[in-house]
Amino acid sequence: MDILRIHGGTPLNGETHVYGAKNAALPILAATVMVSGTSVIEDVPDLEDVRVMMQILERLGARVRWSAPGTIEVDASTINKTDVPAELMQRMRSSIFLMGPMLARFGEVTLSKPGGCVIGQRPIDYHLHGMRQLGAKIDEQHGYIRCTTRRLVGTSITLDFPSVGATENLMMAAALADGVTVIENAAREPEVADLAQFLLATGATIDGAGEDTVVVRGCSNLHGSAYRIVPDRIVTGTLLLAAAATHGEITLHGAQSGHLGAILQKLRDTGVRVDVDRDIITVKCEQHPRAVDFRTAPFPGFPTDLQAPFMALLTTANGTGVIHESVFEARFKHVDELKRMGADIAVDLRTAVVRGVQSLSGARVVASDLRAGAALLVAGLMADGVTEVEGVHHIDRGYQSIERHLQTLGARIERVSNQVPV
Ligand SMILES: CC(=O)N[C@H]1[C@@H](OP(=O)(O)OP(=O)(O)OC[C@H]2O[C@@H](n3ccc(=O)[nH]c3=O)[C@H](O)[C@@H]2O)O[C@H](CO)[C@@H](O)[C@@H]1O
Ligand SMILES: C=C(OP(=O)(O)O)C(=O)O
């Protein structure tokens, strides 16, 4: 087992680049199964989830390889299986993205319940309901989900909640369906728009992705293309928060500030200085941050994936901040670990009240999920003394070589292998 050992108290300083977004790369890699010809996907982060997606594609029969650092080539013409192995399904939430594309191209797919961060129940009922509306037959038995169709037919689908995954899955299925599909109350996250851009590059016809009504005109064939993934707004936000929390100054290149409106505004509200110049964001913390309140919400609201790292910043802010988590019902698992480090946080259902303390003190803590892990890294970087973070495999699902990335910004952090859990 790996741990991350952090000697806290050193301000982050320096410059670095932001890499492509996990949450865009994963559905786009899944979408390559619909393409006749080779897809070349650039700026793909080397993450555990990306490797699992590559394994799934390989097990289905596709030819998949890293053709250069950050570039994955997929030739899906050799796919000869339609069962997604259950052990790979369980490794991440994004395995569910095989449903729409496989169904659209082969008329059948067998999956099981996806894994991913345990931050709530995370049902897949919107995905299943939408696929049925498009004409799929779905049998759920013994933990397997068997989806079949003679042909998918475009229709009108209204989501009960703007689910990112359901919007993406249905958009992919609709791209090869007969006729027009209209998805209402669609998720507006930038990763939805990025998936649509990839599909457009392959010849699909999609209007409105990134808005709340998406219109997909089905076509009979998608062709190979090269596509560059959008920068990761959650990694960008995490680094900005880590810099602010350590009272440092960093500059991020290749960032998309337009995707970070809510988080940049909240950071400014704490008194942190944020400067944006095209794709460059600089953050500088000149004074002790003051507490702010926020509630998470679908895009363009405050992203739930940055709730935990922002909470870490608030633990030592001046005053009391109130956080409401409206997207997932169980996304406060980092709270007990932050409290072990000296934070003063009270939780009532989906609301956390964070009273700023003077300082955090390093401790051995456990990351229960990806962004909880990010919060503990931020906390460890700002704490007095040494923090050791267990559960690093969660962090590796979403942050590429996190210790090396933070080291380039002056952090005193190392990965220690073969540790016995306490
Ligand atoms: C790989 C990926 O892109 N993951 C992101 C995606 O997850 P994911 O696509 O799983 O998140 P959703 O937007 O679907 O989930 C939002 C809410 O809808 C509920 N829901 C969702 C689907 C469904 O069929 N039924 C249902 O009830 C969920 O339980 C949750 O409460 O968006 C989340 C919300 O921005 C982010 O935190 C995740 O990082
Ligand atoms: C919740 C997340 O990921 P996933 O949906 O892949 O579990 C995340 O990226 O914070």
Automatic annotation (TrEMBL):
Q: Where in the cell is it found?
A: Cytoplasm
The catalytic activity of this protein is classed by the Enzyme Commission as 2.5.1.7
Any idea which residues bear 2-(S-cysteinyl)pyruvic acid O-phosphothioketal here? Answer: 117
Question: Which residues are listed for UDP-N-acetyl-alpha-D-glucosamine binding in this entry?
Answer: 93, 305, 327
The domain of life for this entry's organism is Bacteria
Active-site residues, record numbering mapped to chain: 117 (proton donor)
Pathway the protein contributes to: Cell wall biogenesis; peptidoglycan biosynthesis
Annotated binding of phosphoenolpyruvate, by residue = 22-23
HAMAP family from the UniProt entry: MurA
Stated family: Belongs to the EPSP synthase family. MurA subfamily.
Kindly give the NCBIfam families that the UniProt entry links to this protein: murA, PRK09369.1
Q: What does this protein do?
A: Cell wall formation. Adds enolpyruvyl to UDP-N-acetylglucosamine.
Q: What is this protein called?
A: UDP-N-acetylglucosamine 1-carboxyvinyltransferase
